[in-house]
Amino acid sequence: MTILAIESSCDETSAAVLADGQMRSNVIATQLIHEQYGGVVPELASRAHQQHILPVVERALSNATIPKSALSAIAFTRGPGLLGSLLVGTSFAKAMALGLNIPLIEVNHMQAHILAHFIEAPRPVFPFLCLTVSGGHTQIVRVDGPLDMTIIGQTQDDAVGEAFDKSAKLLGLPYPGGPLIDQYAQNGDPLAYKFPMGDMPELNFSFSGIKTAILYFLRHNTNTNPNFIQQHLPNICASIQHTLVQMLLTKLKRAARETGIHEIAIAGGVSANSGLRSAVTQLGHELGWTVYIPRFEYCTDNAAMIAMAAQFKYEQGEFTPQSVSPMPRMSF
Fold it and tell me: Residues 4, 8, 10, CA angle at the centre, nearest 5°?
């Protein structure tokens, strides 16, 4: 089984080759053009995907030393994501599969983040809980099998990744700001400033309130001292990161307690955050969890996770018709 996978849900164009269970290549082209706008511009993203997709696919095949004639299937991200971006990847995958007369496999982007844990050891044992955190999603997912997942908690408004990026923008940091908050937080006091965590029923999240609280906090302090942010940036970043991470862990602890599941994983772009990785690891030691954290390469959007998810679907014979179209709001 040799699968070529394509990921184009947002602003990374990626292609990967999975052959006989081994990831042979994983190529990612990042779009830098969005930095000057402080966020992803959908139209520019789709145009950049059109420019990148062919060279990225060719490089992935070259790095894997796999000819197109050896491919068993083409996998692609159907959703969720930006419509224009998804359309580029979907159209390319459909055309290539049709030209090679091989099956097409659609993949759910968020499920693929979870299945990235199976690219390499150590691999979670079913059932496990996965805290899936990104710029567009915040979910706690119960995973009973590679194709058997249930969302048991999720954000009711904004995603935690969006909260990181919006906070960074309020601090005057360039896009993407989430990683910069993480960087500055390394030298700050996480307890320097206190922000309200709020509360949501059951296992759900809400991050709109803390964004407003941060806005008012910065507005009040900069009115008093115009240099407040520059003088206290590490402490502000550390306090913001600490609060957001604690909001995530509070619900994750509750989910583990209510389900009795102690196999715990994190996935998605925000799982690259060093504060979250450290806190989940420490909590796992305290509560007797077995914790799984993917390599940084497999945290952010990448085609390797699409290939991994596609392998499970290939084994079950779950193929996609050529009539398929993107689903920007695709759910589980």
Answer: 155
Share of residues in the chain with pLDDT > 90 (%): 92
Give yes or no for residue 35 having a pLDDT over 90: no
CA distance 14 to 28: 4
- Range list of H helices, 81-153: 83-100, 109-115
Q: Identify whether the C-beta of residue 3 lies closer than 8 Å to the C-beta of residue 105.
A: yes
Cα distance between residue 246 and residue 163, in whole Å: 14
Indicate if the pLDDT at residue 34 is higher than 80.
Answer: no
Per DSSP bridges, beta strands 138-145 and 148-154 are antiparallel
Task: Give the Cα separation of 214 and 205 in Å (integer).
Answer: 17
Report cis status (omega within 30 of 0) of the bond before 127: yes
Q: Which helix (H) or strand (E) holds 48?
A: helix 42-64
What band does 39 get if pLDDT is binned at 50, 70 and 90?
A: confident
User: What fold, for 124-294?
Assistant: Nucleotidyltransferase; domain 5 (3.30.420)
CATH 3.40.50.300 fits 2-114+300-315, yes or no: no
Mean pLDDT of 26-37: 82
Structure tokens at 31: 């779009």
48 forms beta bridges with none
